[in-house]
Amino acid sequence: MFRTFGPNEVWYIVMAVQWTLLLSAVAFAGGAAGGIAIALARVSPIRPLRYFALAFIRVFQGTPLLMQLFLVFFGLNIFGVGINPWVAAAIALTLHASAYLGEIWRGCIEAVPSGQSEASWALGLGYRDRMSHIILPQAAKISVAPTVGFLVQLIKGTSLASIIGFVELTRAGQIINNATFQPLTVFSLVAALYFILCWPLSLWARHLEGRFAIATAR
Amino acid sequence: MNYQFNFAPVINNFDQLIYGALITIQLSVGAILIGTLIAIPCAAAKTAGIKPLAWLVNVYIEVIRNTPFLVQIFFIYFSLPALGIRFDPNTAALVALSVNVGAYATEIVRAGIESINRGQVEAGKALGLKGHQIFRYIILKPALRTIYPALTSQFIYLMLTSSVVSAISATDLAAAGNNIQSATFAAFEVYLVITAMYFVLSLGFSGLFSFIGRTAFRYPLAR
After folding, report:
1. Of the candidates B198, B21, B185, which has an alpha carbon nearest to the alpha carbon of residue A67?
2. Domain count within chain A
3. Cβ contacts (< 8 Å) between A198 and chain B: which residues?
4. Where would you find the membrane-spanning parts of this chain (chain A) (predicted)?
5. Closest residue of B to A185, CA-based?
6. Would you call A163 and B167 a contact, using CB atoms and an 8 Å cutoff?
7. What's the CA angle centered on B158, arms A194 and B23, to 5 degrees?
8. What are the CA-CA distances from residue B174 to residues A65, A67, A93, B11, B170 (Å)?
């Protein structure tokens, strides 16, 4: 009556990890580009830009990721693009990551001592030189640990793409469970695979945090 | 773009959305209370350095924090019945949310407990306070005061995460949206309104938390 749970089923679930990784990579790349724009807008001298970035962050941090996915998924249809879970998930997770990384990186930019900014003013550096040569390189160093931490959250977030029908690790697990009805084995395997992806990153983030704390201790 | 927006299905079924929002609030508040009750003893065990217990707590925290909530709730709702543990959808949702927030809160409470100066504890001992009094008045309360902002933003994040429980047909706000959407096909309008409702809920939670923070963690001496 049911399909048996054998090596093929395990392989199907394991191979779905690549879609989870691909979606995470796309969302992280897009989110990094969007995040740097949001972070710069958030600390910009231009007031409307600051307000726009603040509103963007508030909206994306104040609403569920699942609703963001639904709105992009059904919203694409309104613009006549048609229903495509892969595109919708990539766009929604990119916007989501932009807001979170924007807020994290804003904090890192503001953590650079203001004397650095003042010194670059005194040296007559313009906005572009000040940001690209003085502020951002120092902010980047501070940002590594929290960014890796967010990457874990993003990988876990890609599981929600399964609800709009994108076949990644969680959806692959559901499909195999529906065919074999071995929920204990299937979801243990799915959880273990996520754990293998996320745990090393979590440990790495903690290690970086510890090293950073030692480096900045006075 | 020649799409006709149609908000009539949302307005006509608004009572369902209100009911869903109430379930979302119930689940979130319930999970916050149970999660805190899980977090305090777990954080105490971890900081006290009781080896096997601290190890168990670590396993719990790492497993929960490194797997998606969606997989956790699938495990609780679909896999546990194979071991003879059965929940209806809303109970499964409450259990999953509590277990999830408990792990995150444990780490936050632990950081708070570790921020307490050892000298405070020694002063408590010198004053003749008993162990549980020291834990409650000298360690826990100042620790909670320190970590309150971090804890409450975790709780707001939990409330937003609770939308995922609609995936196991619990009857929360997101599920109310799924029902209206599948009956009326006004998907975008329905989810737009629901997203706005979640936003209002998050503002409400954050307002409520700052009110509670101001009253519960006031220092006893007036300035």
Report:
1. B198
2. 1
3. 65-67
4. 12-40, 52-76, 184-202
5. B79
6. yes
7. 120
8. 12, 8, 19, 16, 9
Pure H helices in chain A: 7-15, 17-42, 47-61, 65-78, 85-111, 114-122, 127-129, 136-157, 169-180, 183-216
Per-residue pLDDT of chain B in tens (223 residues, 90 and over written 9): 567 888 888 888 999 999 999 999 999 999 999 999 999 999 999 998 888 999 999 999 999 999 999 999 999 999 999 999 999 999 999 999 999 999 999 999 999 999 998 899 999 999 999 989 998 889 988 899 999 999 999 999 999 999 999 999 999 999 999 999 988 888 999 999 999 999 999 999 999 999 999 888 877 655 4
Domain that holds residue A183: 7-217
Distance CA A139, CA A36 (A): 11
Complex-level ipTM: 0.93
Q: Is A2 inside any structural domain?
A: no
How many other C-beta atoms are found inside a 10 Å radius of the C-beta of residue A40?
19
Domain ranges of chain B: 11-216
CATH top class, domain B11-216: mainly alpha
Neighbours of A42 (CB within 10 A): 22
Token reading at A122:
């005194």
Which residues of chain A lie closer than 8 angstroms to B81, CB-CB?
183
Distance (Å) from the alpha carbon of A38 to chain B's nearest alpha carbon: 20
Tokens of B196: 């706005």
